Amino acid sequence: MTGSLSIAARAAYILRDNSTGLITKAAPALYPHQWSWDAAFNAIGLAAVDLPRARLELDSLFSGQWRNGLLPHIVFDPAADGYWPGPAQWECATLSEEAPSAPATSGIIDPPVHAIAVDRILAVARAAGGPEAERTEAWAAHLYPKLLAWHRFLARDRADKQTGLITLFHGWESGTDNSPRWDAPYAAVEVGPSLPSYVRKDKAHVANAGQRPTDREYDRYLWLVEEAKRASYDAGLLRQTGSFQVGDVLFTAIFARACDLLAKLAVHLRKANDAAELKDFAAEARAAVFCHVDEASGLAADVDLRTETWLRTETIAGFAPLIAGGMPLELRRRQVDMLLGQRWAGHPSFKYALPPSTSPCSSAYNPACYWRGPVWPVFTWLLTWALSRSSEPGAASALREASLAQLADETFAEYYHPVTGEPLGSLHQSWTAAAALDWLF
Ligand code: 2M8
Questions:
Q1: Which H/E stretch holds residue 415?
Q2: Tell me: the pLDDT tens digits for 46-98?
Q3: 118 partner at 20 to 30 Å CA-CA among 102, 230, 312, 431?
Q4: ipTM for the complex shown
Q5: Atom 11 of ligand 1 has which residue's CA nearest to it?
């Protein structure tokens, strides 16, 4: 088999192997349940090989949606064990009337890439034509009200009135758990004496525990779950009591782009009022992202809402304006040059010219540890997706080629060491396989 064909075949095999028949596990051992933004990326990859499964992936995820529109960051597979904290720790249906009694879910959120997935699945189906295209159109119309409820939840419960940024009450909600972007707000989180004792299960599933967050960080992650439980997962209460409250530029940028696409679907479904509402959400979210670009660095900055301070760290989230799209040409050129330049993808020590999760020029850079330095193929995919839609096809194709060269090792790792190219974290990670499939489609 030629290189690309072999990568695609192996990626398709991994997605099949990680399937329970209903959901795609985020990873075979480390993450044996369905994660929200993983499911959306996985559905994009699946669209290339199996449209019914792509649709099913999102249907399964949305079966865990809460009555208030919240789409939980994990939908638990009742048959799976081995991940902690599990349903017995989250206790969502007991603590909140908004949560479904089944399936069991977590009570926090993930970045809203779902409308991006639906748009991509529709594009693939329309190009294929025939009955699958018809089925996919009907499916999208059926899923649409759930997506709308999710976006309305974010605009209503999570948009911060001062900054316009989406508020997170847990670093897990950002998807970039231990990124240096959250070091300062986490330093202010005091773990209470009532934190239940626990045994971490994640470290057993990686080659070296140094690739995962520290125990100190885990204490804070678990403490924030306790705080969310005490507030019955209610955003209004958490705004009063939460000891971690940040405005996330990357989440907000994804929301802006996803609102554009959902508005497009609303127009297609002849829902003019919804479309206008979604366009307003998009405009507000995009304006909030552009307002938080640090002039000196050219990167977007998150905000610690409790102290009203900008979090100026050199992480990949600083490229949120590229994800949001629609930025002034000058800012776009500056960001693209920086992304490909020596502080990022073009660093002379790197094996492949790919942007790491934290700049090697940052004092917080740790090339082997999770979101503190490694290259994440799924994030590269998101960047290529956004760049190719923002009149930057050259940058998009350079990143795509470099990432496919890296993925030729066929380990489909969760993340990679930027200097050595060593696969890190979980192997056979679903969203890494999905990214490869979409690139090769
Ligand atoms: C990682 O996060 C989970 C917690 O949600 C974990 O470490 O247990 C993150 O990389 C997150 O972005 C991702 O969705 C999840 C599953 O791949 O793993």
A1: strand 415-416
A2: 999 999 999 999 999 999 999 999 999 999 999 998 899 999 999 999 999 99
A3: 102
A4: 0.99
A5: 175
What is the identity of the amino acid at 412?
F
Q: Going by CA atoms, what residue is nearest to atom 3 of ligand 1? A: 172
Which domains does the chain carry?
3-440 (1.50.10.10)
* Cα 425 to ligand 1 centroid, rounded to whole Å: 11
Active-site residue list: 177, 414
Tell me how far the alpha carbon of residue 424 lies from the centroid of ligand 1, in angstroms.
Answer: 14
Give the DSSP per-residue string, 161-219: TTT-PEEESSGGGGS-TT-GGGHHHHHTPPPPTTPPP----GGGGSS-GGGS--HHHHH
Whole-number Å distance, alpha carbon 95 to ligand 1 midpoint, is: 23
Model pLDDT, residue 262 = 99
Report the pLDDT averaged over residues 148-165.
Answer: 98
- pLDDT reported for residue 2: 74
Burial 166-189 (b: 16+ CB within 10 A, else e): bbbbbbbbbbbbbbbbbebbbeeb
- The residue whose CA has the least distance to atom 4 of ligand 1 is 172
